[in-house]
Protein: Lipoprotein
Organism: Sporotomaculum syntrophicum
Amino acid sequence: MLSRTQLLVILTSLLIFLGCGGCGNQPAENDAVRATEALMRSDALLQHFKSVHPDKEVIVFARADVNNTGNDDRVVIYRDTRDQNMMVVVFDAAGKLQCSNKVPAPATNQMIQFKDIDERPPLEFIASGVKGANYGYAIFRLEAGVLSDLFGEGMEDCC
């Protein structure tokens, strides 16, 4: 009969062998990448972004009605250059797809959260992220097609 220690070593080895050390996550990650790519191909607003910025890599995007038209818009953070990420909003303006002005976006761990901060339209959103040891966030609003930074902390260090 195996001792408790031997059994623990065998179970730990088995878990590592079966993929708990990282390999087991690969199919889920591949599925997420495929789902994102499929969405990119089927989403008219994301397709418009790619037509305007064909050589830019989309890092993260989120959807919500940020211009108060009743239709979801896309907030897109993308790699602009090797060392710089940018953000735009892609929206439908009376049947014509448009991109807002671009603003600097965090280098890594980007997150987009929608929050009605002032309790009136349009909907604001928070972009946050990291660059090295620096964390930053900013609150944005899209008005008349212009993306404005309302308030932020540390964004100059994380973008």
About this structure: The two ends are 59 Å apart (CA to CA). Residues 73 and 91 are 5 Å apart (CA to CA).
